[in-house]
Amino acid sequence: MPNVKRIMMLAIFLVFLVFGATVGYMVLLDLSFLDALYMTVITISTVGYTEVAEMTQAAQVFSIFVIVTSVGTVGFVISRIGAFFTSGHMNEIWRRNRMEKNIEHLKDHYIIAGSGETGFYIMQQFQNRGVPFVVIEKDPEVVEELQDADVTHITGDATHEDVLSRAHIERAKGLVATLSKDADNVFVVLTARQMNKDLHIVARAIDKNAHEKLKRAGANYTVSPNEIGGRKMAAMMLKPSTTYFMENVIHTEDITLELEEIEIHPKSRLCHKKLKEARISDKTGLIVLAIKHEKDEKFRFNPHAEETLAPHDKIIVIGQQDQIETLKGLAEEQPK
Questions:
Q1: Distance CA 237, CA 276 (A)
Q2: Which of 149, 152, 169, 185 has the fewest CB atoms within 10 Å of its CB?
Q3: Who wins on pLDDT, 2 or 175?
Q4: What values do phi and psi take at 291, rounded to 5?
Q5: CB neighbours (10 Å) of residue 25?
Q6: Is 128 found in the same domain as 77?
Q7: Considering 86, 119, 143, which residue would you say is the last residue of a domain?
Q8: Do 92 and 69 form a contact (C-beta atoms < 8 A)?
């Protein structure tokens, strides 16, 4: 933006130069405004057309001054404009404007507070799933990386209420707090919960004692990357075959199996049917892992075929994303 301001200042100076020269010719040669402007243009451009009036010595001296002043200015302005366009500044401005418009229209989106290593993997998962999200980051170097990667982001401190407002937290679906300090994450969670009571919040806990503080602040879930990493390393050591299955069968280059929670709409065609009658596996290819009735607090794993699906029941399934989308369609309200 400083380059834009410099070019604007030079352009304004050039406009004043043209106006001043026009007024000068009107006074010195007693010309009309149009004739004086014509004299100014042919003088500045040095095209050499015939003057519209007989030149006096005063007008000649004035023309020399206009030529000397304008040639350098015009050349410099043109060179700066050329450099501005060729150096990618216009593309940067275009990307910034497009991003701001995207942020303005965000709805049912996710907010990532902090884009460190944990935030990077969250962004990667969100991008793979095609869900809308915006990143809040204050580190200039990280912001530059987000710009280069064309990631929708807001430059600012996520602990500030006005920054969360710019991310439209009032109409967001969820927030992930991944800042590097537990105190900052607690503050983000507390502020976010006050601004949106229905927001789903997942927070990163660094210290083992931070989980309870984050939940009291308003987090729905807390995650410790160190704890998860430790469990995975232990599993690799103690249960290598299980780990191999998770890494190479559930997640491969060609296929990725997803775990998904799906709620049964009261007017769904699956409602009031037993699992064996719903034939979810036959219709979608998914595996039903668990079911949670609205009145229950916990999921029932490996549900029996005689289980009946009631309104607002939730089922956990595993399968490919397109299969999950098929089940979502069956679980939603059916058109009359």
A1: 39
A2: 149
A3: 175
A4: -140, 145
A5: 26
A6: no
A7: 86
A8: no
Q: What is the CATH number for 303?
A: 3.30.70.1450
If asked whether residues 69 and 113 sit together in one domain, one would say no
Tokens of 301: 């794993």
Gyration radius of the chain over CA positions: 33
Q: How far apart are CA 69 and CA 325, in angstroms?
A: 68
Contacting residues for 134 by C-beta, under 8 A, at least 6 apart = 103, 106, 109, 110, 111, 112, 152, 153, 154, 167
Per residue in 85-141, pLDDT (tens digit) is 665 555 666 677 778 888 888 899 999 999 888 888 899 889 888 899 999 999 988
**pTM for this structure?**
0.61
Euclidean distance between CA atoms 15 and 26, whole angstroms: 17
Instruction: List the domain range (segments joined by +) for residue 295.
Output: 257-331
